[in-house]
Amino acid sequence: MRAVLSAAAALLLAACSDASGPASGLRVETSKSVYPLPGTPTVTVPYSVRNTGSTPVGLANCGDGVAAELQRRSGGTWVTAAPIECPAFAVYAPIVLAPGEAAFGETEVTVAGEYRIRVAVVEAEGSPYAASRGFAVRWLED
Predict the structure, then answer these.
(1) Is pTM, for the whole model, over 0.90?
(2) How many domains in the chain?
(3) Strand residue runs (E) in 15-101
């Protein structure tokens, strides 16, 4: 039990740490390049993470999909718009993607802007990450 809790703590710390650079062999994609904000206050953005490399990769798991950070472009840099949020007392094993496999997740966006999805590789030296291309969230025009 102690080993499971230690592994879970290490996983969560790795997922929340600053990353040093892009991970080769991971592709993060959203289904659209533009998402309209309807009359309701949020839009759901689904994303996929595919292992295009030759070795298995561990990703943070938030219970029902890949845990990811939502980032918003501010000036010329990407800043955290929504950090990874998982239930406080849950223990989640990492999602291990074999070469060629994909995993999925989704996030909610409430404000118009340019965003991307950032996924950290867990249990890897240097905290590598992968990020989607930027996508826009815009209010629907009448």
Answers:
(1) no
(2) 1
(3) 21-22, 26-30, 34-37, 43-51, 57-59, 69-74, 77-82, 95-97
